[in-house]
Automatic annotation (TrEMBL), chain A:
<dbReference type="InterPro" id="IPR050722">
    <property type="entry name" value="Pyruvate:ferred/Flavod_OxRd"/>
</dbReference>
<dbReference type="InterPro" id="IPR002880">
    <property type="entry name" value="Pyrv_Fd/Flavodoxin_OxRdtase_N"/>
</dbReference>
<feature type="domain" description="Pyruvate flavodoxin/ferredoxin oxidoreductase pyrimidine binding">
    <location>
        <begin position="255"/>
        <end position="474"/>
    </location>
</feature>
<keyword id="KW-0560">Oxidoreductase</keyword>
<dbReference type="InterPro" id="IPR029061">
    <property type="entry name" value="THDP-binding"/>
</dbReference>
<dbReference type="Pfam" id="PF01855">
    <property type="entry name" value="POR_N"/>
</dbReference>
<protein>
    <submittedName>
        <fullName>2-oxoglutarate ferredoxin oxidoreductase subunit alpha</fullName>
    </submittedName>
</protein>
<feature type="domain" description="Pyruvate/ketoisovalerate oxidoreductase catalytic">
    <location>
        <begin position="20"/>
        <end position="207"/>
    </location>
</feature>
<dbReference type="GO" id="GO:0000287">
    <property type="term" value="F:magnesium ion binding"/>
</dbReference>
From TrEMBL, chain B:
<protein>
    <submittedName>
        <fullName>2-oxoglutarate ferredoxin oxidoreductase subunit beta</fullName>
    </submittedName>
</protein>
<dbReference type="Pfam" id="PF02775">
    <property type="entry name" value="TPP_enzyme_C"/>
</dbReference>
<feature type="domain" description="Thiamine pyrophosphate enzyme TPP-binding">
    <location>
        <begin position="55"/>
        <end position="202"/>
    </location>
</feature>
<dbReference type="GO" id="GO:0045333">
    <property type="term" value="P:cellular respiration"/>
</dbReference>
<dbReference type="GO" id="GO:0030976">
    <property type="term" value="F:thiamine pyrophosphate binding"/>
</dbReference>
<dbReference type="InterPro" id="IPR029061">
    <property type="entry name" value="THDP-binding"/>
</dbReference>
<dbReference type="InterPro" id="IPR051457">
    <property type="entry name" value="2-oxoacid:Fd_oxidoreductase"/>
</dbReference>
<keyword id="KW-0560">Oxidoreductase</keyword>
<dbReference type="GO" id="GO:0000287">
    <property type="term" value="F:magnesium ion binding"/>
</dbReference>
Length: 615, 344
């Protein structure tokens, strides 16, 4: 049968199933195939904190959304065009997000009376008219997979588990994806069990062939490659990019990287990744708690390593006292906070930007640190290098504020040339710096950077003592002198405030916007997509995005004051807006949401349109 | 390996230029002098020695040592020192702590440093009181202790620091006294020679808030009858006339003190610090009574177990063995790993 081929410029697909159905892996593979084809991509996984919530229930639903297009895109997409629902729970949990007309592929084998009852369906939605308005494709995914594997030497359970590969095969056919990388992946994944390689490959092919032969799918789609800058790309998540950025910081500084970490969602993947890079001198330590993790990192920095600790909000709270010690000791330290919804345990697998106040102010005493936030998954690489650069150059703790959205989301990353990465080499102190030529003054500062010398143990002649007690200027001796304390507090503040950071750039293509949207961190994508949408409709709007939250760019005040209105969307209750109002006396409008999910471009566009009307 | 060069350091070389600010009469002075007097023996250059402390009177110690040093925050010295020791195996890292610092706020870090067996020498100055905060009871204060925070007497049972360390399977555990310089230095010597974590409890007098806490162990009239001086390979007898001994009664779990005269010689326990099972050293740690009778001094346990930092460095060395690419080349290969595609 000849299938019709239709060209699309963009598609959003959501794979949804039980947490044991392998939806993250399926989405990952589809993404990888799509990357090979050269589309621009953005992905969003969404999964419960429970490893295996009761099967078939709403809390157990795990999903993976992938948005791909023939042009550059900024978000994983507001609403899926296609939903793959592996069971009734997956259908029920995701249906509200689907626009009318969307395709729904359901695994009919799971639509049993028992499974329907588990999620409160009185009858099957496949049998009544509740799905009228959608293009429903009922597919017996499980039984067809088991049937396709009848001749294979695998257990019934293993055969059933391969149903996600059947689904992947079907979707790969529908969207004309190149699948060689998936076959190679299956060979690697099941290398120890060849019968599973064969079974999963067979399931994949069965899904592909089903698409080709069934009459239910009469159309096949193509999405042409996007125009992207020349170069070599890979698809990467924020946590992976951040890990590689830290490895790169070690290489470019010539220092060993020491990571002290305690497992915590959604930061643990950074610990996992960095533990693989001993070859490049990365030492990781899974500490007994969050406090020990940052303590060990600080101890390593004292010894001349690039000390790093990775965590999420609750961990930063525990590390706070040690970060203040690092402020007093004036040693390099990178603290990575992959934010999640709080307070307390909150929603550990959901995103939020509510740790900004803690990053800026969450310490005792006047304890300023630098704060950097990545704007997208691949930007995590460069933000990690920037955090390391500030920490090493200015001998200060730096908080790198990632969040669950960029950490687990993915996008294509143009691989940088290693030689083009910033040179982070540092000079350790090697000889006395006192005027007499024999004295070492551990708090005599570099006049340019205000950084004190980094004299690591093992350096003869520079033996000195440092500590949390207030230190006299230059000598570092214990001091209770009032004037000295006032001077040291102001100097520590100036040290951070005078770090040169790049000016903030404004995107306002026609230069006639009167409203500026200011964001920070992971909201870059949705804000950018909303602004594009408005401009396409002839509504001018300017976008600026903060990467450095402490210190802030020198031109920020001027930029803010050159617009009639400043709007600040944040996934918190207005933390940046508060800072902006206080620092710049600008009457910024906050747009705030804390639903554990990223903003959709559509809701921002609607909100901004209202603002534009009233300017 | 060639013979190390004799550095010819003296105690004076280890004195920093800082004015020592403990209360006059504090036991810490004696410990500081004993440590400064002992350090030259190690023949380790001053720049390769680091003292790291937490918070409390004892934790001011690093300021007075002319080595590298860090006075950190309450309870966290073992964690900070672990990061330093793991990343800098060339250094000799010492932790100075107190009963509140190590056993109350920092209890977690202490037991984990000990179970990991990090190359750290941990000196715990135990004065059974909070000194720097002016006299509250500590986790080693006896039950019923009347202090500023416990006017009706403390209600909680104290830790036995050595039992705790042995429970964490510390590989080196010893106890000594601030006032016995010779013994203190002999224990420091053994601790310094030990590979892995060495835990040394030093009974230390706080003459302001808990004066005389260990007096029976110091008074000439009582000390010989109260103290058990452990000597590896020697039968455990003590008392002014050797009138007491330690036995392991059949059917019992622990050790007991008997009269030597009424005990057959072969029943007297011969001290062996190298017994693999920590139960023996634990039993020794349980001997003292509330009145400090039967207090063993010396090395309870000294066994070998791979040190955490050594294992970590071995893993790094194994990963790097045979690598002939520059770090930049390796990084380039790493960044380009996984599924990539090229756009022309």
């Amino acid at each position: 049968m000849t299938k019709q081929i239709r060209q699309l410029d963009r598609v959003v697909i959501r794979f949804a199933g039980d947490s044991g159905d392998g939806m993250q892996l399926t989405g990952d593979r589809f993404t990888s195939e799509t990357a090979q084809l050269g589309n621009d991509i953005s992905t969003l996984p969404n999964f419960p904190a429970e490893i295996r919530a009761p099967a078939g229930t709403l809390p157990g639903v795990s999903s993976f959304q992938v948005h791909f297009a023939d042009y550059d895109i900024l978000t994983p997409g507001d609403a899926p065009n296609v939903l793959v629902a592996m069971n009734p729970a997956a259908l029920k949990a995701n249906l509200a997000d689907l626009p009318r007309g969307a395709d729904i592929i359901v695994n009919t084998d799971e639509f049993t009376r028992r499974n329907l009852a588990k999620v409160g369906y009185a009858g099957s939605p496949l049998d009544d008219d509740s799905l009228a308005g959608y293009a429903v494709h009922p597919v017996a995914l499980t039984s067809m997979t088991v049937g396709a594997l009848a001749a294979h030497e695998v257990s019934k359970k293993d055969a059933e588990r391969a149903k996600n590969m059947f689904a992947l095969g079907l979707l790969s056919w529908m969207y004309s994806r190149p699948y060689e990388s998936t076959l190679r992946f299956l060979e690697r994944k099941f290398a120890a069990r060849p019968e599973l390689v064969a079974a999963n490959v067979a399931a994949f092919r069965a899904g592909w062939n089903f698409g080709e032969t069934t009459e239910d799918f009469s159309v096949r789609y193509e999405v042409k490659p996007a125009k992207m800058l020349p170069g070599t790309y890979r698809n990467i998540t924020g946590n992976a990019a951040l890990s590689l950025g830290l490895v790169a910081a070690g290489v470019r500084s010539g220092l060993p990287v020491f990571l002290g970490a305690y497992p915590i969602t959604p930061a643990s993947d950074i610990l996992h990744e960095l533990s693989k890079h001993k070859k490049l001198g990365v030492v990781t330590m899974q500490a007994e708690d969050e406090i020990a993790a940052v303590g060990a990192a600080l101890g390593a920095s004292y010894g001349g390593s690039l000390g790093v600790t990775t965590t999420s909000g609750p961990g930063v709270a525990l590390k706070s006292e040690t970060i203040s010690l690092a402020v007093a000791l004036e040693l390099p330290l990178v603290i990575v906070d992959v934010q999640r919804a709080g307070p307390s345990t909150g929603m550990p697998t959901k995103t939020e930007q509510a740790d900004l106040n803690m990053a800026l102010y969450g310490r005792h005493g006047e304890a300023p640190v630098a704060v950097v936030a990545p704007k997208s998954p691949s930007d995590c690489f460069h933000a990690a290098l920037e955090a390391a650069r500030i920490a090493l150059t200015y001998r200060t703790p730096v908080i790198l504020l990632s969040d669950n959205y960029v950490a687990n989301g993915s996008e294509p990353w143009l691989l940088p040339d290693v030689e083009s990465l910033p040179d982070l080499r540092v000079e350790f102190a090697t000889r006395p710096n006192g005027e007499d030529g024999t004295t070492f003054l551990p708090y005599l500062r570099d006049p340019q950077t205000l950084a004190r010398p980094w004299a690591v143990p093992g350096t003869p002649g520079l033996e000195h003592r440092i500590g949390g007690l207030e230190k006299a200027d230059k000598t570092g001796d214990i001091s209770y002198d009032p004037t000295n304390h006032d001077f040291m507090v102001r100097t520590r503040a100036a040290r951070i405030e005078t770090i040169p950071v790049p000016d903030i750039e404004v995107e306002d293509p026609d230069g006639d916007a009167r409203v500026l949207v200011l964001g920070w961190g992971s909201t870059y994508g949705p804000i950018g997509a909303a602004c594009r949408g408005l401009r396409q409709r002839g509504l001018p709007v300017a976008q600026a995005h903060l990467r450095h939250l402490a210190p802030m760019p020198a031109n920020l005040g001027e930029v803010l004051r050159s617009y009639d209105r400043v709007v600040i969307p944040e996934m918190n209750l207005g933390q940046l807006a508060h800072v902006i109002r206080a620092r710049y006396l600008v009457d910024a409008i906050g747009y705030n949401q804390v639903r554990g999910l990223p903003f959709t471009a559509a809701e921002l566009e609607t909100m901004l349109e209202e603002v534009l009307k009233n300017v | 390996m060639s013979e190390p060069v004799a550095l010819k350091l003296t105690a004076k070389d280890f004195k920093s230029d800082q004015e020592v600010r403990w209360c006059p009469g504090c036991g810490d002075y004696a410990i500081l002098a004993a440590v400064q007097g002992f350090m030259p023996e190690l023949n380790i250059a001053r720049e390769n020695t680091v003292f790291i402390s937490g918070i409390g009177c004892s934790s001011r110690f690093p300021y007075y040592m002319n080595t590298y040093g860090m006075h950190s925050i309450h309870g966290r010295a073992p964690a900070i020192a672990t990061g330093l020791a793991v990343s800098r195996p060339d250094l000799s890292v010492w932790v100075v702590t107190g009963d509140g610092d190590a056993l109350s706020i920092g209890g977690n870090h202490l037991i984990h440093a000990l179970r990991r067996n990090v190359n750290l020498k941990i000196l715990l100055f135990n004065n059974r009181i909070y000194g720097l905060t002016k006299g509250q009871y500590s986790p080693t204060s006896e039950v019923g202790k009347i202090t500023k925070s416990t006017p009706a007497g403390s209600a909680d049972a104290p830790f036995n620091p050595l039992s705790l360390a042995l429970g964490a399977e510390a590989t080196f555990v010893a106890r000594t006294l601030d006032s016995d310089r010779k013994h203190l230095q002999s224990v420091l010597r053994a601790a310094a020679e030990h590979k892995g974590s060495a835990f040394v409890e030093i009974y230390q007098n706080c003459n302001i808030f808990n004066d005389g806490a260990f007096e029976p162990l110091k008074e000439p009239a009582t000390r010989d009858d109260f103290l058990i001086r452990l000597e590896h390979g020697q039968p455990i007898t003590f008392g002014s006339d050797g009138q007491f001994c330690v036995v392991h009664p059949p059917g019992g779990f622990g050790l007991e003190v008997r009269e030597t005269a009424a005990t057959p010689a072969e029943e007297i326990v011969v001290h062996d610090a190298t017994v693999a099972d920590p139960a023996y050293a634990f039993a020794l740690s349980r001997l003292p009574g509330l009145d400090l009778r039967n207090t063993p001094l010396g090395v309870f346990r000294a066994v070998e177990r791979p040190a955490y930092d050594t294992v970590v460095q071995e893993q790094v060395a194994a990963a790097r063995a045979g690598v002939d690419q520059t770090p930049e080349q390796q990084l380039s290969a790493l960044l380009g790993g996984g599924d990539t595609w090229t756009i022309l």
